[in-house]
TrEMBL record:
UniProt cross-references to PANTHER family, sorted A to Z: SI:CH211-161H7.5-RELATED, XK-RELATED PROTEIN
Transferase recorded as keyword: no
Coiled-coil segments on the chain, per record: none
Annotated transmembrane regions: 40-61, 73-92, 98-119, 131-152, 167-185, 192-208, 220-241
Protein name: Tryptophan-rich sensory protein
Organism this protein belongs to: Luteimonas terrae
Keywords annotated in UniProt: Membrane, Transmembrane, Transmembrane helix
Length: 244
């Protein structure tokens, strides 16, 4: 199972590179531009995938070598982490193929898998003994906590399920659900600094994009993103003081 984690960690950047070269069809940026939403982030934000892939690969090598091979916690999370990496990898060709509903199922599955791992690694004493695993999986889960809802919003627009001329109402509902997910997971992780940092990176990128976005309601959506980031930061401070 440790080898499977490593293989899936290698597969993610390889498939990402193939996806960007057009092997599976249009790249993610091209498809995303076809379906503008009030939850989309500035393009620079997605460069974080490079950091995510690097940390995941380092974690995968680390957990499969040395004394870590006998670590019970790393052994327990290994199959779930491998599943999260696998789902992340297959999301890319699915998105390029325009299979949006499949993408939604896959990305929420990846989020559930990696968030569960991050919660296990955030328990008392676990993070200090498994710092690299905690960092890699917390950041991956943090980004997916936003990306999943961005993906859902684009799926709604792509299929015309809700009004695309007046998106603010249902976009605010998605923001509310995403805020609940972020705050709940951060609470379960006892105020996770890495999770907070990557979430704020994404939320600020949404603010940056939406303040100059021509869609009706974009400015409101931008400030909602900032408000969620502020609340998440306050929660993190309070949780860390409580568990100190």
């Amino acid at each position: 199972m440790r080898l499977l984690v490593l293989l899936c960690a290698i597969a993610m950047p390889v498939i990402a590179w193939l996806s960007q070269t057009g092997v599976f069809g249009p790249d993610q940026g091209t498809i995303s531009d076809r379906y503008p939403t009030l939850l989309v982030a500035a393009g620079y934000a997605f460069s974080v995938w490079g950091l995510i892939f690097l940390l995941d690969l380092l974690y995968a090598v680390w957990q499969a070598t040395g004394t870590r091979r006998a670590d019970p916690l790393l052994g327990r999370i290994a199959p779930v982490a491998a599943l999260g990496f696998f789902l992340t990898a297959i999301w890319m060709p699915l998105f390029s193929a325009g299979l949006f509903w499949a993408c939604v199922v896959v990305i929420f599955g990846a989020l559930a898998s990696l968030a569960w791992c991050a919660v296990q690694l955030s328990r008392p004493g676990a993070a200090s003994r498994h710092r690299l695993a905690w960092l890699a999986l917390s950041i991956h889960a943090g980004w997916l906590s936003l990306a999943a809802f961005l993906n859902l919003a684009q799926t709604i627009v792509a299929h015309g399920l809700l009004p695309t001329g007046r998106m603010l109402g249902w976009s605010l509902v998605l923001w509310a659900i995403s805020a609940v997910v972020l705050l709940t997971l951060n609470w379960r992780m006892r105020g996770n600094i890495a999770y907070l940092a990557i979430a704020c990176w994404g939320l600020f990128a949404v603010w940056f994009k939406q303040t100059d976005w021509p869609l009706a309601g974009a400015v409101t959506s931008a400030w909602v993103a900032i408000a969620i980031g502020v609340v998440l930061a306050i929660q993190t401070v309070l949780l860390r003081l409580r568990h100190r």
